[in-house]
Amino acid sequence: MSRAARARAVLQAAEQIHGVSRLALVPASAASASSVPVEQRPAAAQDVAPVPLEGAFAVPSAFAQILPQGLPRGAVCCVQGSTALLLALAAHVSAQDGWVAFVGMADLNFVAALDLGMDLSRVVVIPEPGGQVPEIMATLIDGMDLVVTAQRVGLTSAQQSRLSARARERGTTLLVAGAWPQARLHISGQAGTWQGAKQGLGRLTTCSYRLQRGTSAHGFKWVDVQLHNGRFQAVTQHAPLRLLA
Q: pTM for this structure?
């Protein structure tokens, strides 16, 4: 039985046992993909970084400088300041035939996720988990490759620690919008200027970002990238000009 099939079976049992009507395993494509014209859907995911070490997902090539070993399996990764960064990482996992679950993130824009290359046929969404967050998270960790959630879902520190240990044991990556104790990776993104619209007309197509990995205790790595028409691209760093005497 596949990881996703196992998750579906356990979630259905949880619905019967707990009587949680809001507990649902819903393909995101049923809610979002049909509203996007076919010609606007991306043909492929982001460009791929060099193959990471065994036990990690590849990441978009634009992120290779801050994630040279890819996105580790079984680890907790905190993402702050940029929903686009979080969605791009999740999209890249789905593009590698990984199953992705979103828990307690009802306000996410899955049209944007589609633009970033997410395979919505491999995504499940539980937007309102109610009071069963620990049980739902544990079940999804058993069945998914990547579980995406937010700090605001209201888990206690003890529950977070247990879920971290479970993810490490199962080899499932937790991607958290916000803070999480014992996180292995801390990544932040700061958006800069938008480009594309001229004189109030047209469509915004390009946004500059500075992505940063690390903490004040362990040092930082950063890279400048651009999000252009749904793809992150590294920004070439030019050497400073030197004046000749």
A: 0.75
